[in-house]
């Protein structure tokens, strides 16, 4: 086996929460009179909550104090969490679940490396609450992707060195973070176009070919 562990990004890799993020940011942007569309929403992929807010505020005709920014981010998050309650185990695709099971059966450790502070809530909604060996997420990092912190912590939690880990990501910032951590990176979806990844996956199950 080429690796001892695989660290998965959550949003856009294990499941899709893009639309819920979009709806919640859109509601906030509308209230503040800020133009916001799906193209701007794509720039938020893999980016932390506060950095996402800064991107949305690029089109704001005014200024918010730090306190108002925190309140705006909390407003978005409360709405986002309400929307996440619509998710069920049916939002986990059989292909993803079967591939995860097959990787585990090969003896690989499975971890999460996500920018989200809602990781545990999302995993519980889709029926993977206790599934992963270790979770590194927005609650244990101080620097957002493309900084490697989230993946370095993930590897440390798994008890592995960077060279023993493969990262799976859907965002360019996430691929950059994995490479900066000294790890190989498999890109899926949007991230395949950046041309930086060690592997480009056309389907999640392609991972099985990358690990040996
Ligand atoms: P939260 P990932 C990222 O998750 C999302 O892609 C990104 O859109 C979001 O802003 C970020 O999490 C923070 O999420 O507001 O839930 O803390 O792709 O790194 O799993
Ligand atoms: Mg992602």
Explain what you see.
This protein is 42% helix and 11% strand. The mean pLDDT is 97. Strands 3-2-1-4-5-6 form a 6-stranded parallel β-sheet. The protein is an alpha/beta fold and 212 residues long. The chain starts with a strand and ends with a helix. Bound molecules: 1,6-di-O-phosphono-beta-D-glucopyranose (B16) and magnesium ion.
Helical proportion, percent range: 40-55%
Structural class, by secondary structure, is alpha/beta
Percent strand equals 5-15%
How would you classify the quaternary structure? single chain
The overall average pLDDT, rounded, is: 97
What is the helix/strand order?
Answer: EHHHHHEHEHEHEEH
Q: Please tally the β strands and state the result.
A: 6
Report the radius of gyration as a whole number of Å.
Answer: 17 Å
List the main descriptive attributes of the protein structure presented here.
212 residues; alpha/beta; six-stranded parallel beta sheet; 9 helices; 11% strand; globular; binds 1,6-di-O-phosphono-beta-D-glucopyranose; binds magnesium ion
Strand and helix map with partners:
Layout: E1 5-8, H1 18-32, H2 38-42, H3 49-57, H4 66-84, H5 94-105, E2 109-113, H6 119-125, E3 134-136, H7 149-158, E4 165-169, H8 172-180, E5 184-187, E6 199-200, H9 207-210
Parallel strand pairs: 1-2, 1-4, 2-3, 4-5, 5-6
Helix pairs in contact: 1-4
The structure holds 1,6-di-O-phosphono-beta-D-glucopyranose (B16) and magnesium ion.
Magnesium ion is lined by residues 9, 11-13, 45-46, 170-171, 174.
Summarize the structure.
This protein has 212 residues and is of the alpha/beta class. The chain contains nine helices and six strands, in the order βαααααβαβαβαββα. It has helices spanning 18-32, 38-42, 49-57, 66-84, 94-105, 119-125, 149-158, 172-180, 207-210; strands at 5-8, 109-113, 134-136, 165-169, 184-187, 199-200.
């Amino acid at each position: 086996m080429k690796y001892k562990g695989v660290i998965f990004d959550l949003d856009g890799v294990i499941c899709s929460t893009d639309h819920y993020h979009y709806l919640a940011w859109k509601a906030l942007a509308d209230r503040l009179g800020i133009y916001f569309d799906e193209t701007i929403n794509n720039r938020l992929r893999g980016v932390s909550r506060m950095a996402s807010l800064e991107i949305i505020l690029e089109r704001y005709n005014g200024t918010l104090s730090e306190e108002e920014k925190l309140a705006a981010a909390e407003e978005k998050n409360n709405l986002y969490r309400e929307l996440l309650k619509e998710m069920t185990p049916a939002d986990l695709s059989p292909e993803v679940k079967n591939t995860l099971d097959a990787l585990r059966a090969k003896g690989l450790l499975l971890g999460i490396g996500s920018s989200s502070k809602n990781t545990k809530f999302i995993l519980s909604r889709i029926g993977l609450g206790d599934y992963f060996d270790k979770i590194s997420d927005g609650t244990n990092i101080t620097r957002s992707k493309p900084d490697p912190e989230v993946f370095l912590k993930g590897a440390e939690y798994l008890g592995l060195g960077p060279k023993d880990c493969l990262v799976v990501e859907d965002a360019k910032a996430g691929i950059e973070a994995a490479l900066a951590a000294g790890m190989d990176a498999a890109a899926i979806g949007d991230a395949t176009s950046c041309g930086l990844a060690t592997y480009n996956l056309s389907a999640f199950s392609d991972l099985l070919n990358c690990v040996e």
